[in-house]
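Build the 3D complex.
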Amino acid sequence: MGRRWVALALAAAMTMGGAAAANEAPAPGSNPIIRDKFTADPAPLVVGDKLFLYVGHDEAQRDEMFNMREWLVYSTTDMKTWTAHPPIMKVTDFKWAKKDAWASQAIQKNGKFYFYAAVEHDSTHPGKAIGVAVSDKPTGPFVDARGSALITNEMTPKGTHSWEDIDPTVFTDDDGTTWIAWGNRQAYIAKLKPNMIEIDGPITEITPPHFEEGPWLHKRGGLYYLTYASLDRSTQRDEHVSYATAPSIQGPWTYRGLLTGSGKYSFTIHPGIVAFKGDWYIFLHNADLAIGDQSGAIGRRAVTVERLRYNPDGTMQPVVQTKAGVSAPAN
Ligand code: FUB
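Done.
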């Protein structure tokens, strides 16, 4: 009888504790970092003492796969509190694009902000394409910088499918040259002209092992990193994150293996890596957010952030997506 009472009291306490926890506001910095909208494909950019985070807006209804019509931007100064700004651009602002405001990245150069994004081209260049837009401010609004796609499906003829030219990542090397890498199943890299809106020279294939999509270029010390959504089709159902390193932006790239597992409930995952105020962070997404009666799904994702740590040899320590995120103490 006594033991039964203790068990009942414990169960009641756990239920009440659970209810209290469920009602508590999440600690600032915990994941997902944006909770009133579904967001995906995070791309951070540091400008002065602020970090701007560009994301795609997931608006899939019911079992729709993707419904992405615009890109959003958020900013923070402390990695814990986020300010929402008006949408920076709609996919229809690229007049030659039909739909699909897919993964993007913005970069600062020549006193302006350039925004590179994957979209579906109209029937004049069927398939996915990459556009570039420009603004005087990181919060936009951004306008199409060319009036035509920067990269179309025909420019990478080796590709086997119509959506291989997606997910641009842009990186400016120490000599001032900006490079753009992108791809799905095949990964490509090319130089950008100083005007930032034309490709300069050849497009080179750099596909690393298990490359699926979502490449992200960054440099730390003397080492270059190519981090990407990977899928080992023989053993994995959902995308993970893997990476390669190189002594130069032009390679040779050495495969370093897995960096993260898959995003909860999500087929896709998408890395965005940045140093901010002395620490390194990796942004990812999963589908572990419900808003009202809409649960997470392939087309209703949620952006997360974790601290990123390096080993003395430059390799990155494995990252686990957590609920606590950067609300947890640094060590
Ligand atoms: O969000 C649409 C697409 O799904 C992105 O372009 C890919 O990286 C994947 O996240």
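Helices lie at 2-23.
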